[in-house]
Amino acid sequence: EAGVVQSPRYKIIEKKQPVAFWCNPISGHNTLYWYLQNLGQGPELLIRYENEEAVDDSQLPKDRFSAERLKGVDSTLKIQPAELGDSAVYLCASSLEQNTDTQYFGPGTRLTVL
Amino acid sequence: AQSVAQPEDQVNVAEGNPLTVKCTYSVSGNPYLFWYVQYPNRGLQFLLKYITGDNLVKGSYGFEAEFNKSQTSFHLKKPSALVSDSALYFCAVRDYSGYALNFGKGTSLLVTP
Fold first, then answer.
1. How many domains does chain A have?
2. Do A48 and B100 touch (CB under 8 A)?
3. What homologous superfamily does CATH list for B3-112?
4. Which domain holds residue A11?
5. Residue B37 and residue B15: Cα distance in Å, rounded?
6. Which end of chain B is more exposed for a tag (fewer CB within 10 A), N or C?
7. So what's the pLDDT on residue A88?
């Protein structure tokens, strides 16, 4: 069974530029999460989707961050414009159900903003 | 909010010796606890979880964890460490309000030959 797929794996951009990350969850997983992991820290939730609905986006900085999950499968996370402080690893995870089920993580996208 | 703490930034152990990575939790109600491992430039890999039932949970790669309600702990253990176990280990608790995982800061495990 294929795991969670993310692309790109690495991205280097100048500040004020836009950037987008893509995630393909495990087949059949209805719940999708985007986490942010700063260096030396544990991941922190940005947004959670149940199918195509964003049910928890309270931690998403909506002035510059946006996300979508069209058709309830793949998801895209966008930053526009990027700031130096956005340099981090962006992790996508998925789970079959939202309650006690295990979340499976992708390899992440490492963003460097210069 | 549900939270976990990992009191050790780094744990060093010799290959073949038992290892313990500590985690304590703070929750209201019954905790749903998880352990993940992260290798360099890789995502988090699930090791094991405690939802209910037996306090000793067995997971992947020979790891196990003991849930202790009186001490509010969920320590990760392995009887005999391997050099390949060297990685970053994260304890996490599920947040009731949003179903996200609240992670600890992580503990770096170094197993020396």
1. 1
2. yes
3. Immunoglobulins (2.60.40.10)
4. 5-99
5. 18
6. C
7. 97
